[in-house]
Design a protein that fits this description.
The longest helix has 18 residues. The protein has about 350 residues and is mainly β. Strand 17 and strand 18 form a beta hairpin. The chain starts with a helix and ends in a 7-residue tail after the last strand.
Length: about 350
């Protein structure tokens, strides 16, 4: 009888503890194993082109686009087939066709009426659609439309249906009044806002800055679908936002710190350790740079590690490079991954083995 009572009390305590368990992330977390896997070392081919002061890169069709700090042309257009620069656009200025400081929108670029449209953020506050096709014809920047946008300092956004009128917005936490807010995900359409419940409460960090840092990680959108991924910098997570099907989930490396663990420097958190960096998207898969192994072993010849996943969150493999790649972009037309070294303005073509493209 006494054993039965003790069992009942223990069961009640377990149920009570589970019921009170923190739940920072509200959706399914799929446990994966993508760390410390065998990786092939791939070769890289250095292109005979160095965009001065490059800060971003995107490839589409026959072109590679570079965002630069060069005032003689803040958008450089490189023709892949001709193997040379063919245009220098987005000159400094304050007119509608000029730019103060352009930035890419999560690597989005699309066709409209048979012409290439490249959306760019200017001066952190204005979203401009550059008609690349007309700009190349006229040898001058042609901005087709423009609207106010989310300041990248406050969060990230992506265009839904490649339209300026509808955006997915990820607002990072805000440190204010001695506290820190929970991240907010939402859809904004012509003045209407729909909140997407993703995070229930803030990660339990030893201080506000620690909690804030766990949510850093830029978003990237599928080339065609309204499907977005976010690879986190300081956690072993990739978050998926399938807006077309209202399906949200995450993949998480087994055995590593989770959303519901308390974050303590020197115990389970090192602000110098970055996990995921840039993401390059394709129709059937995406690549993500993974820095934790390379940067924790500075004496190794390996300078970059890249992982490959499908859009369902399945790990498909990976490779390592002996060259340093900070930004990269995949060209669907010629099935080539291009990389950019921000330190030396070097551009590389990554030489794939056939099995990595299957």
């Amino acid at each position: 009888m006494r054993k039965a009572i003790l069992y009942t009390v223990l069961l009640f305590e377990i149920v009570l503890m589970n019921g009170c368990k923190r739940s920072c992330y509200l959706h399914e977390e799929k446990e994966c194993n993508y760390v410390n896997q065998m990786r092939d070392t791939l070769d890289t081919e250095l292109l005979d082109y160095r965009p001065l002061g490059a800060t971003g890169m995107l490839t589409f069709n026959n072109y590679i686009f570079f965002i630069t700090d060069d005032p003689s042309g803040q958008l450089r257009v490189y023709d892949i087939e001709k193997e040379k620069e063919i245009a220098s656009l987005c000159l400094p200025g304050r007119s509608i066709n000029d730019f103060i400081s352009p930035r890419l929108v999560p690597d989005q670029i699309y066709m409209r009426n048979g012409e290439i449209i490249l959306p760019l953020i200017d001066n952190f506050t204005i979203l401009k659609e550059v008609n690349v096709t007309q700009s190349l014809k006229q040898n001058s920047t042609v901005v087709e439309s423009h609207i106010p946008c989310v300041n990248p300092k406050d969060g990230y956004f992506a265009l839904i249906d490649n339209s300026l009128k509808k955006t997915f917005v990820y607002n990072r936490p805000v440190m204010e009044n001695g506290g820190c807010t929970t991240p907010v995900c939402k859809i904004e359409e012509e003045g209407e806002t729909t909140i997407i419940p993703v995070f229930d409460q803030l990660i339990d960090g030893e201080d506000n800055l620690t909690s804030f840092a766990q949510y850093m990680g830029a978003i990237k959108k599928h080339p065609q679908k309204n499907l977005i991924v976010q690879a986190l910098q300081y956690m072993n997570y990739i978050l998926f936002y399938d807006l077309d099907n209202n399906n949200y989930f995450a993949i998480h490396q087994k055995g590593t710190r989770s959303f519901d663990d308390r974050v303590v420097s020197g115990v389970n958190y090192n602000p110098q350790t970055i996990y995921f960096g840039d993401v390059a998207v394709a129709d059937d898969f995406f690549f993500a740079t993974y820095w934790a192994n390379c940067r924790n072993n500075p004496d190794t010849d390996i300078k970059s590690e890249v992982l490959k996943f499908d859009w369902n969150g399945n790990y498909l493999g990976g490779f390592v490079l002996t060259t340093l790649i900070h930004r990269f972009s995949y060209n669907e037309k010629n099935k080539t991954l291009y990389g950019l070294d921000l330190e030396d303005d070097k551009v590389y073509k990554i030489c794939f083995k056939d099995e990595l493209l299957k």
